Amino acid sequence: MLLFDHLAIGASTLEEGVAFAEAALGVPMGPGGAHPRMATHNRLLLAGAGRYIEVIAPDPAGEPPGVPRWFGLDTPPSPPRIVSWVARGRPAIIPEPLGEPAPMSRGSLSWTITFPRDGSLPLGGALPCLIDWPEGVHPTQTMVDSGVVLEKLIITTPETARAKAALAVMEFQDMALLEFRQGPAALNARFATPRGTVEI
After folding, report:
1. What is the dihedral of CA 33, 36, 40, 41, to 10 degrees?
2. Containing domain of residue 17, as a range?
3. What torsion, rounded to 10 degrees, do the Cα atoms 121, 150, 139, 97 define?
4. Domain total of the chain
5. Closest residue by Cα to residue 25 from 76, 82, 71
6. Is it the case that residue 168 has pLDDT exceeding 90?
7. What are phi and psi of 26, to 5 degrees?
8. I need a surface site. Which of 56, 101, 108, 137 has the fewest CB within 10 A?
């Protein structure tokens, strides 16, 4: 069984990504940290119960990882955009190549996450990376209410039927949060914010 966990907004620099998210959503991003294994760093924002937004970028202070960075961040987008989404849980069957689980850490947090080792996105971003947090541990537990709530993740893909079938097999429980559109691969999201409805 899987649940929605978070969105990843990729950027060339963390400063650029944070400025983009704050301008769009109208609220300040919260703190984050560094991922030594991937030489990336992030800032986070609560976006509803158990859900959050991550702005992530290459960390210029990090040691080069020697492997492709996750979320395609060896060639980060400019301007920033949503590059991936992440679901949490351990499905009994994984019908698509999402990557093998890899141990990760940020400060006192640790977890495992799947991602294609070539730095690509699962089914062009239409499918999530899978994260597994230790029992009773989740980063949203220490986040303050931002007034931002994720209302819909809009997944545009030429592989709509394939993506829906894979999520059904993995028993993804938050299908009502997803809207699928047929077309070239893209991810957009709609939020309720203190300034009203916003789409990124």
Report:
1. 10
2. 2-199
3. -20
4. 1
5. 82
6. yes
7. 80, 15
8. 108
